Structures are given as C-alpha cells and as structure tokens.
Amino acid sequence: MKKITFALTALALFALASCSQTQNPETASAAETHLEEAGVPSGGQSAVADDESQKNVVQTAVGSPDHTTLVTAVKTAGLVDVLSNAGPFTVFAPTNAAFDKLPAGTVEALLKEEKRGDLKNILQYHVYVGSLRTESFEDGQSLGQVNGGRVTMGVKDGKVTVNGATILASIPTSNGVIHVIDQVLLPK
Fold this sequence. Notes:
Blueprint: H1 2-20, H2 25-37, H3 57-62, H4 68-76, H5 80-84, E1 89-94, H6 96-100, H7 106-110, H8 116-124, E2 127-129, E3 142-144, E4 150-156, E5 159-162, E6 165-173, E7 176-181
Parallel strand pairs: 1-7
Antiparallel strand pairs: 1-2, 3-4, 4-5, 5-6, 6-7
Signal peptide: 1-22
InterPro entries: Adhesion/Biosynth-related, FAS1_dom_sf, FAS1_domain
Protein name: Fasciclin domain-containing protein
C-alpha cells in the first residue's frame, strides 16, 4: 500500500511541476507544429473542424452575409473561442445595416487597439448565458448580460424587442440561439 501511495504522490507532484513550468516559446512552437503535423488542431474550440454537426453561434454568424461587421468585431475583440464553446448562449446579433446606423466612424474607432476594451464590453452586452427562444420572452423581462449590464425585453402584438431593437429572426445553433436585431445595443 505504501508503494502505491508513494507512486501516486510522485505522479501528482510530477504533473503539478509540469503544469507550473513556463514553456519556452521555441518549444511551444515546435510542439504546436508537431501536433498540427499529426492532424491535431491548435487553438481553442473555434479550431475544431466539424462539418457534420449543427453550427455554433460563431460559425452561423460567419456564414451570414448580413453579419460581416459583427464577425469582424468578434474576431477583433478576441471572443471567437469563447462564443464557440458549449454555452448555451443567447446572442442578440446586429446586422450590418444596424452597425451602419451608428454615427460615422464609430465602428472604425472601436476596431482600433486602444478601444478593444470598449468593443468587448459592447459585444458582451449582446450575450446572455442561457438559451432563450423568442416565445420565452415576456414584456418587461430584464436579462443580465455577460458584461454585467441588463437589457429589457418587449413583447407587443407579436413583435419582440430588446432595448427597443426589433428581433427580425431567430436561428437555433448547437450552442444556443441567435436573435438577429436591427440595432446595436449600447450599454449605459
């Protein structure tokens, strides 16, 4: 029994020591190259190739010609891997036309390095953790968004809105649902 305990302790210490070591960038690069050559994708969840399953929120947005500005913003903010994970997420996805309604130069400014924090905050204001279908919304319902802000749902005469932006369509995905909206939601 002492041998097993010693062996398990030694193995645990070895694993802990391996995890805490900083990896040499040259070694990391060589390891990544080796994995890629072996057919193992590097990167996060977004790097997983799967042509058979239902698309996730990012893959769905990438395939939409009406969401190229949103996709560029998500990539710039470094949120691709996060939104490619299991979720579930409810994403309120502004169309290109919605971004065009913003004052001239706003999108370009947000895509600059010094505004990445603001861009990330705005994009996270469009995401709710959980999968909410249109029929589950109630008039006046308040939702806590990923950035810590809140949005208010409106339901009237069959029309559903979020902070006044109209939901134009809803698209189920493998990790949640996308609600296409006609305005960009701006946190207060």
